[in-house]
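Exercise: predict the fold of this chain.
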Amino acid sequence: MPRPPSSAPIWLFDLDNTLHDASRAVFGRLNQSMTEYIVTHLGLPHPEADALRLHYWRRYGATLLGLERHHGIRAAHFLAQTHTLPGLEGALSMPHVDRMALLRLPGRKILLTNAPAEYAQRVLTTLDLAGVFETVVSIEAMRVFGDLRPKPDTRMLRVVLARLKLPAHRCILVEDTLANLRSAQKLGLGTVWMRHYLKDNPHGPETATGRGRPRWLHARIRRLRALHHWRPHRPR
């Protein structure tokens, strides 16, 4: 396959609720699995464990980060225990038009997800996207000087750009989470907010829902095919 020209965009795609409907297929089961993990390993009652899971997700962008920082939970153990999700493949789906739009989208494509690598590969394989991305940057690869730094941490993103030799001005992050987009724009990336799957998000609604668009947000989309119809124009 010929390499895209040096002027072509470099797309950094999130996975859950960006490429597929994780609110319906995954998040409910995953949230339950994480809460049960906290009940088992921290000895909290279920309501307190559930509140702690959500608190750490909102504060750090990933429940795991709070558990590792404040409770000494080992990341590998937490990810292995909470992301088994038997029967996951049967619950996954992606609109055919979105898959085709992604396949035809010009430029390099990289997956950047706070999910673990094994889970990401299961989802990509099931959605027939395993060959679309040149690399997958999962949460295991988001350590900076030994500390876990998942999205929205700008330090991690800066390290990933340097490691993969990606010029920030050519990169565009496509995400469902506004905090991650805001951090990316600080480094000079284009920002595209995927809103199609947010209505039923059990993590809670995103807040930039007014008529105006934040200055740091490049574009809002509901379908991946919309990426074909505009050209990058950085917010000022």
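Check your answer against the key: The longest strand covers residues 108-112.
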